[in-house]
Here is the input.
Amino acid sequence: MRRIGILFITIGVVCLGVFGYQIIGHEQSQKQSLIQAEERIEQGANTQGEADQDIEETIEQFEAETDEAFATLEIPKLGKILPIVEGTDPDSLDKGVGHLSNSVLPGQGEQILLSGHRDTVFRDFGDLEIGDTFVVQMPYGEYTYEIRETEIVPEDDTSVIREMGEEVLVVTTCYPFHFVGSAPERFIAYAYPVSE
Here is the structure.
């Protein structure tokens, strides 16, 4: 009986070690991505200041490479500034908030889709409410969006990804927020541009 107890304690310690290692790895990747994003934003601001290029032309021509951290997402209520990385594959989501490559970017007048893990970048996401804001800092400017509605959909519901006829920041994460294992649903926040 004592050996079984020791075995369970050993398994528990190993599991905690692996979990701790993964958390530290995610945090390091996110810190590096945030530095890369801030450098890209600063570079864009400097280029914009030097060039005579029209801002609308800059917005339309902007591109990011897959896995590149190119912008930041600030969530004022949670006191977080997170890197936005191009792509929603597992490698991109390990580095920060993923931007769905098929969706547009701020200032381009359609659906902008961002996604992140509930247990890394979007920890405490359940504290957000209607009226809270997201601030996206791009290399060509800052965009503020206010959450106007939320919904919960099954994990395989792709109807969320669609043309909306106007600029909408759609932010998704797994749901329930404190679920152990692969979550069966997705929490969707729809945020609309705040007039300057």
Remarks:
- Helices lie at 2-50, 55-61, 90-95.
- Residues 3 and 9 are 10 Å apart (CA to CA).
